[in-house]
Each structure stands twice: as structure tokens, then as C-alpha cells.
UniProtKB/TrEMBL annotation:
Cofactor binding comment, as recorded: Binds 1 FAD per subunit.
Record-given protein name: Dihydrolipoyl dehydrogenase
Binding of NAD(+), residues: G190, S191, G192, V193, I194, G195, L196, E197, E213, G281
FAD/NAD(P)-binding domain mapped to chain residues: 5-337
Source taxonomy: Bacteria, Pseudomonadati, Pseudomonadota, Betaproteobacteria, Burkholderiales
Length: 475
């Protein structure tokens, strides 16, 4: 016998589980299905983000940053530690514990909000009177009927052609978050967010890290001033980033890998390493979903085609998060999940993709929201820009972390903020002020005139806003 729901959500990553909770808050009967299991077979809702993405990477970034601070910065505070060591097994155990707390937190939230959770792989069966039939191939097979369905099946790491992930030597993010000992030599292909974050973790723990990047420009999506400052900081740390590297043949052995590539000067090079992380992007995932059974249209890359409101071509079926167009970010998936739940009950859910903040959790952190100076130039928009360095901020000096700057870009005529770009301490937290200001269509003058607490890093944002009008006070 099938079980009937107002809404069936497929996938319990940030897009799916948040959509399920919001829909339940709005009074719908909701089922959420997710296939992920822990190594010992328990349900592990939370998706890529919780299990092998945002959360475990931040846990390892935190542990490795503590180690780096203790190794290099405690002495300047008068703290001596003696010979330092790190127990990687313990660090990984802590990371697994953090992940588990998040899995359990989501199960608790489902219970609290009366969302019925099913652990298993979901596939569309057919359209039925007033809805869609979805099969769940779990420990206990089930058939559910949803009047409406949200597809939130996420994405998978993209391998290099002819080089599948073995998670021993050739690693995706899954394996890269679970290396038992810091490799002596670590190669990474791709200097995007994931390559930089995971490269930072293992460099801090002692690996000699080389990142090969095919493009000639470092972080082309970031503002050039920010990308330049970040590259300088990574170079100083010894994180080697080779731009314009064209990867050729990659040979793997049991405990090593050899990468042949051509460098930016056109010279043939060979890089040998103990492990290779391939972080060249992610592809939308609809494996096992059988979207064709109900006629849901996919694009040429396997993603679900949706309109601006996340409607698929089949009325009553929606899709959110990494499986659809737009930035592959957890908070974007969440916003879409909330908006779709609200649209289903006739409300006016809203997501502005132009105001999604981007963050890279390296040291220094990098963040931005809105447009870059190079984008505005290309679009012919008249703008004015102001920057302020953390070096001139009292709190940053007290923290001992003065790398970087905040840059505010505003419309030349109206002064409306068009973009804010940060590289430096706590950039991930500081960007929230900019996102709020831009959502309220604030001017740079608004930020410049709002009282910011002293001494805080946020004063750098205020000073950068003052600098837009050439009246920074402390620099
Ligand atoms: P997912 O989180 O991928 O969840 C999809 C879920 O659907 C999975 O649990 C999967 O098992 C399930 N599923 C798929 N098919 C089926 C099926 N047929 N039946 C049942 N279940 C199914 N983003 C950030 O915003 N900040 C970060 O700091 C960040 N760090 C990251 C670090 C790494 C290493 C990686 C890899 C990614 C990171 N991301 C980060 C990206 C973020 O993880 C994704 O954008 C986010 O998880 C997308 O959410 P989603 O709900 O669309 O999909």
C-alpha cells in the first residue's frame, strides 16, 4: 500500500531537509527521503554538506589552524609549547563526531516538525491521479505518493577523464577529508574553493602541497584586488599554486601518482606525489532517480532544468540546490528550499541569486557578495571603489592577523553598493553585513554613517565605505 503526502522531498541535503521543515511548518504533510548511510549503516541525513562537504572540511580547517597557530604564532604571545605533535586519527575522529552531531540534529528536527523520514534510494515510478508515485529502495521498500515533489539530489565530484576516484591515491573530497596520515607530497588539480581549503588543511599538517590550475588567472570569479592579495598570502605560506598548467597523462601506482603536465611557459613537467586530490568541479546528480518515468527534463550535463522559481517542466515537480543551475552552495540550496515550500502553499518565496555570498574558508578567508570591479568595467557601469587594509585596524593587530583588505564598490551616481569584497580575518562572518546592506539597497554612505563597535574587524568595512568617498579616517 502506498503512503500519501502533500509533499515528498527527495534528498536531505541543505536544499531538501530545509524545504521539508519549512513545508511542515506551513502545515503540509511531508516525507523526506535520503539515501546516505554512515559507515556502520545508520541514516545520515544532511547530504554532501554535512557528510563530506561544508561541515567536515570546516572541522579539519579548525584543527589544522590550531596546529598552525600553536606551531608558529603562540611564541609571540609568550606561550611555549615544547615539541608539538598532532594525532591525525584523533583529529579525524573529532571531525566524524561533528558530522554525527549534525546528522542527529537533522533527525531531531524532522521529528520535531513531524516530517516523515525514509532512508533509501528514491526513484520516480509514475504519475498518478493527483500526484506522483515514488519508490524507496531502503532496508524496508516503500511506495510513497506526493501531491508535489521536490528533487534535491545534489551533486557529485567530477573525476578527470579516464581517472576514476579510488579514494586511496586519487581522491575526491570524500577521500581528501579522511587521509589517515599527512602525505609527504600532495598534488591537487583545481584551485577552486575545495582545492584551496583542502590544500590548506594538509599543508598546515606538514604536506608539501602543489596545486595545478588550468586557468592563467587565480580565482577569476573573485575581485582582482582580493585574488591578488590572497595569492600573495598563499605563496608566503608555501602553498604552491601553478597557474596555466595543462594536465596530460596521470599514472597511478599503489602508493603514488605521477602527473605529466605542461606549465604556463609550455614546458613539459612531471609532478610526483603520494596522493592526488581532483577538485575540478562537481556535476549534478540524478543517479537512480529515473526522472524520465515522469518526464522531468534534464539539461546536457544531467542537471534538472528549472525556471527562475525552481519549477521543472512537469507541474507539481520542483528542483532545488546543486542539481539545478546557479552556484553550488549550501545556503543557496537552503534559500531555494524555503522559497519552493512557500510557493507550494501559495506564498511568494523569493531568492535573489545576485545576492548570494561566496566564501572560501582558507587563511586568510575570502568572501564577496555582488559584482567585482572587472565585471562592472565589462558591463560599462560607472562606479567608485574604496578599500581599507586590516593592517590599519586595531582589533586585527591585537589578533595578530593583519593580512588583507575590505573593498566596497558603489554606483558612481546613486552610491548604491554594487559589491563588497573581503580577504582577511573572519571574512566569512564580515560578509553578512554587506549582504544585508545590499538586500536593503544600502548606499556606501549608509554603512559609513552607521556606528560600528570598536575595536572590531567590522570597522574595516565601515572604513572601506568611507574610503569610497575618499574619507577613510584611520589610514
Ligand atoms: P546535497 O547536499 O548533495 O544533498 C543531496 C542528498 O540527496 C544527498 O544526501 C544524497 O544522498 C541524496 N540523494 C541523491 N539522490 C537520491 C535519491 N535518488 N534518493 C534518495 N536520496 C538521494 N557550500 C557552502 O555553502 N559552504 C561551504 O563551506 C561548502 N564547503 C564544501 C566543501 C566541500 C569539500 C564540498 C564537496 C562542498 C562544499 N560546499 C559548500 C557545497 C555544498 O556542500 C553543496 O552546495 C550543498 O551540499 C548542496 O546541497 P543540496 O541539498 O543541493 O545537495
Amino acid at each position: 500500500m502506498s503512503k500519501n503526502f502533500d509533499l515528498v522531498v527527495i534528498g536531505a541535503g541543505p536544499g531538501g531537509y530545509i524545504a521539508a521543515i519549512r513545508a511542515a511548518q506551513l502545515g503540509l504533510s511531508v516525507a523526506c527521503i535520503d539515501a546516505w548511510k554512515t559507515k556502520d549503516g545508520k541514516p545520515a541525513p544532511g547530504g554532501t554538506c554535512t557528510n563530506v562537504g561544508c561541515i567536515p572540511s570546516k572541522a579539519l580547517l579548525q584543527s589544522s589552524e590550531h596546529f598552525e597557530h600553536a606551531s608558529h604564532h603562540f611564541a609571540e604571545h609568550g606561550i611555549s609549547t615544547g615539541k608539538l605533535s598532532i594525532d591525525i586519527a584523533k583529529m579525524l575522529e573529532r571531525k566524524d563526531q561533528v558530522v554525527k552531531q549534525n546528522n542527529e540534529g537533522i533527525l531531531y528536527l524532522f521529528k520535531k516538525n513531524k516530517v516523515t523520514f525514509f532512508n533509501g534510494l528514491a526513484s520516480f515510478s509514475k504519475a498518478v491521479e493527483g500526484g506522483f508515485e515514488v519508490d524507496v529502495a531502503g532496508d524496508k521498500p516503500e511506495t510513497l505518493v506526493g501531491k508535489q515533489v521536490i528533487i534535491a539530489t545534489g551533486s557529485n565530484a567530477r573525476p578527470l577523464p579516464n581517472l576514476p576516484f579510488d579514494e586511496q591515491v586519487v581522491l575526491s573530497n570524500d577521500g581528501a577529508l579522511d587521509i589517515a596520515n599527512a602525505p609527504k607530497k600532495l598534488a591537487i588539480i583545481g584551485s577552486g574553493v575545495i582545492g584551496l581549503e583542502l590544500g590548506s588543511v594538509w599543508r598546515r599538517l606538514g604536506a608539501d602541497v602543489t596545486i595545478l590550475e588550468g586557468m592563467d588567472k587565480f580565482l577569476p570569479a573573485a575581485d582582482e584586488a582580493v585574488a591578488k592579495e590572497a595569492k600573495k598570502a598563499f605563496d608566503k605560506q608555501g602553498l604552491k599554486i601553478e597557474l596555466g598548467a595543462k594536465v596530460g597523462e596521470v599514472k597511478t601506482a599503489k602508493t603514488s601518482v605521477t602527473i605529466n603536465y605542461t606549465n604556463a611557459k609550455g614546458e613539459e613537467q612531471v609532478l610526483k606525489a603520494d596522493k592526488l586530490i581532483v577538485s575540478i568541479g562537481r556535476t549534478a546528480n540524478t543517479n537512480g532517480l529515473k526522472p524520465e518515468a515522469v518526464g522531468v527534463q534534464l539539461d546536457e550535463r544531467g542537471g534538472v532544468v528549472v525556471d527562475a522559481d525552481c519549477r521543472t517542466n512537469v507541474p507539481g515537480i520542483w528542483a532545488v540546490g546543486d542539481v539545478v543551475r546557479g552556484p553550488m552552495l549550501a545556503h543557496k540550496a537552503e534559500e531555494e528550499g524555503v522559497a519552493v515550500a512557500e510557493r507550494i502553499v501559495g506564498q511568494h518565496g523569493h531568492v535573489d541569486l545576485a545576492l548570494v555570498p561566496y566564501v572560501i574558508y582558507t587563511s586568510p578567508e575570502i568572501s564577496w557578495v555582488g559584482r567585482t570591479e572587472q565585471q562592472l568595467k565589462a558591463e560599462g557601469v560607472q562606479y567608485k571603489a574604496g578599500s581599507f587594509p586590516f593592517l590599519a585596524n586595531g582589533r586585527a593587530r591585537a589578533l595578530g592577523d593583519t593580512t588583507g583588505l575590505v573593498k566596497v564598490i558603489a554606483d558612481a551616481t546613486t552610491d548604491e553598493i554594487l559589491g563588497v569584497h573581503i580577504v582577511g580575518p573572519q571574512a566569512s562572518e564580515l560578509i553578512a553585513e554587506a549582504a544585508v546592506a545590499m538586500a536593503f539597497k544600502a548606499s556606501s554612505e549608509d554603512i559609513a554613517r552607521i556606528c560600528h563597535a570598536h575595536p572590531t574587524l567590522s570597522e574595516v568595512t565601515k572604513e572601506a565605505a568611507l574610503a569610497v568617498d575618499k574619507r577613510a579616517l584611520n589610514f
